[in-house]
Amino acid sequence: MANPLADCVSSLRASNHLLANSISILDSAVNDFPRLTKVLQTKKHFELLPSSDLSAAQSRLLSSLIPEFNALLARVETHLDRLERREQALIARCELLEGRLSMSGQDGEPMSRSSAGGAGRKSLAGEGDGSREALRLKAVRAKKERLGYAVERLNLQAQQRERQLRMSVAAQ
């Protein structure tokens, strides 16, 4: 009877050895689990987003940028308006100065009423009726031209003052 029991004992020892080997294999596999969890952990390098999240983010970005763009556009428009008014004021000043230059005499000095009228009176007294009429007509034309320049100068000054008034109102 020892023989059948010996076979059982050897089979039991083989099973025990097999179980010990399995336990050592399982132990080495289980000891590596913390490293495996780190290795197998998923990292999202390129995250995919649903289109609804993407459109919501775009609308938020757009809603935050539009007021800033509008403010910048308003600043640019006011600056351009200011430059345009300045250009118009400089043009008006140039026209005013050109008018003043054209009013001045040929020698560079402005004509005065007393010198122009006195010269006309002296020549009128010394000549006949035909030449008196021609001189008087010439004097009247010169006076008309001077008055026209004066009116033009006053109009330009009025326009310049209106521009300045508009600029001051716009600045406020």
Overview of this protein structure:
The longest helix has 53 residues, at 51-103. The chain has helices at 2-31, 33-40, 51-103, 113-126, 129-171. The chain contains 5 helices and no strands. It is mainly alpha-helical and 172 residues long.
The total beta strand count reads 0
Q: What is the global morphology?
A: rod-shaped
Q: Which residues form runs of ≥5 with pLDDT under 50?
A: 105-127
Terminal-residue CA separation:
121 Å
How do the SSEs run, as a string of H and E? HHHHH
> On the 0-100 scale, what is the average pLDDT?
79
User: What share of the residues lie within helices?
Assistant: over 70%
Main pleated-sheet profile:
none
Alpha-beta content class: mainly alpha
DSSP summary: helix tally: 5
Report the sheet-strand fraction: under 5%
- Computed CA radius of gyration, to the nearest angstrom: 53 Å
Q: Topology, please?
A:
Layout: H1 2-31, H2 33-40, H3 51-103, H4 113-126, H5 129-171
Helix pairs in contact: 3-5, 4-5
Brief rundown of the structure:
This protein is mostly helical and 172 residues long. Helices cover 86% and strands 0% of the residues.
List keywords for this structure.
172 residues, mainly alpha
